[in-house]
Specification:
The protein has about 425 residues and is of the alpha/beta class. The chain has one domain: Peroxisomal Thiolase, Chain A, domain 1 (3-Layer(aba) Sandwich). The chain is about 30% helix and about 20% strand. Strands 1, 2, 5, 6, 7, 8, 9, 10, 11, 14 and 15 form an 11-stranded mixed sheet that branches. Helix 3 crosses helix 6, helix 7 crosses helix 13 and helix 10 crosses helix 11.
Length: about 425
């Protein structure tokens, strides 16, 4: 690779893999986005009689043995299984051969906000009912958040930089952004990056429900996630994984890789405000978006689409909407905005990565995925175009994906059509 300054090294997306409640694989996922499909349903994996929220966007057709050895899968929590499966899809999609010739230049950066919560709950029950000696010796490596990245590294043979973000619901986006910067500074030629989460468990559901963050529209699961709607009452939890193959442009071209899009910028900001809430003016979200645009030297008037964080919680949607309106000024009226969480649910640490897949598909194939269930737009969300209920065919040259995590972690990633 020719030595270049950081600002000259371009990073492109050459492969993607996705597992979600609305589809496994790019074709199924994209078709669901275009049709406005909801993945929400009543939870059927455990007894929810004591839970106020009884719905989630579950993945019901996942078989880890389709992607990995059965014995290995039994030593992984569900969130790590998702990551390995999505990574295998992405590597195949990119036609990427990881061998002794490039293994040291290929890294992994996969985030998770919660980690192996299901394993922790199961093993804690074993501890209480059957004693300490019966707890699996694989407990710790199954629950720690970095194990999605570690298992992807083991299964692909990638020996370059390997790391993991744990920035709550911004973890997937941080992981993609950090991987982007790793390539830009020349520390790797290829990065396998994204997020993974599997927190639809009794404890996970109880925790979020009891803090009044989740919808309790249990009689209408598919209509429960209602970002920017006046009748929204919280998010619907999802699960899954989104994984990207990021490559330095010259390396991608040298091996004849197919290129979906280019990353132009990565913005971050901190709230320094509250454990779970955004500061009401949206100033820190504005700063985050501006940081992303500044890195790519992209004017605001070039943005065609924003995939919003859009959780359907009362405060988040208002703050993010006000931030977008104030950031883009009069031009905000020309933007298409949507929250794909309305379809695949809020996938926590995987959310930003799955939503980034949706954003890149929009850039590549020129469409805007909808915000479904948006029947009565909240006037407090600024009257913006949230692409209600139906997808729209539109040329998308530049797009942003926003993520915000508990603790005050804001992330914006910028994508654009690839032009040689």
């Amino acid at each position: 690779m020719t030595e270049k300054n950081k600002c000259d090294r371009r990073v492109v997306i050459t492969g993607m893999g996705v597992i979600s409640a609305i589809g496994t694989g790019l074709d199924e996922f994209e078709a669901a986005l275009i049709s406005g499909k909801s993945g929400a349903s009543l939870i059927d994996t455990f007894d929810t009689s004591g839970h106020s929220t009884k719905i989630a966007a579950q993945i019901k057709d996942f078989n880890p043995s389709d992607y990995m050895d059965f014995k290995a899968s039994k030593r992984m929590d569900r969130f790590a299984q998702f990551a390995v499966a999505a990574a295998s899809m992405a590597v195949k999609d990119a036609n990427l051969d990881i061998s002794s010739s490039n293994e040291n230049d290929t890294g992994v950066y996969v985030g998770s906000g919660i980690g192996g919560l299901l394993t922790l709950e199961v093993q804690h029950k074993i501890l209480l009912e059957r004693g300490a000696a019966r707890v699996t010796p694989f407990l710790i490596p199954m629950i720690i958040c970095n194990m999605a990245a570690a298992q992807v590294s083991i299964f692909t043979g990638a020996k370059g930089p390997v790391s993991s973000a744990t920035t709550a619901c911004a973890a997937g986006s941080n992981s993609i952004g950090d991987a982007f910067e790793i390539i830009k500074r020349g520390a790797a030629k290829v990065m396998i990056a994204g997020g993974s989460e599997a927190a639809i468990t009794p404890l996970g559901m109880a925790g979020f429900s009891n803090m009044n963050a989740m919808s309790s529209r249990n009689d209408e699961p598919k209509k429960a996630s209602r970002p920017f709607d006046v009748d929204r009452d919280g998010f619907v939890m999802g699960e899954g994984s989104g994984i990207f193959i990021l490559e330095e442009l010259e390396y991608a071209v040298s091996r004849g890789a197919n290129i979906y899009a280019e990353i132009f910028g990565y913005g971050m900001s901190g709230e320094a405000f509250h454990m779970t809430a955004l500061e009401e003016t949206g100033a820190n979200v504005i700063r985050c978006i501006n940081n992303c645009l500044a890195e790519g030297e992209v004017d605001k008037s070039k943005i065609d689409y924003i995939n919003a964080h859009g959780t359907a919680t009362p405060l988040n949607d208002v703050v993010e909407s006000v931030a977008i309106k104030n950031c883009f000024g009069k031009y905000a009226e020309q933007l298409n905005i949507s929250s794909t969480k309305s379809m695949h649910g809020h996938c926590l640490g995987a959310a930003g990565a799955i939503e980034a897949v949706a954003t890149v598909l929009a850039v590549k194939n020129d469409f805007i995925p909808p915000t479904i269930n948006l029947d009565n737009p909240d006037i407090n969300c600024g009257g913006l175009n949230f692409t209600p209920n139906k997808s729209v065919e539109k040329k998308v040259d530049y797009a942003l994906s926003n993520s915000m995590g508990f603790g005050g972690h804001n992330v914006t990633i910028g994508f654009k059509k690839f032009v040689e």
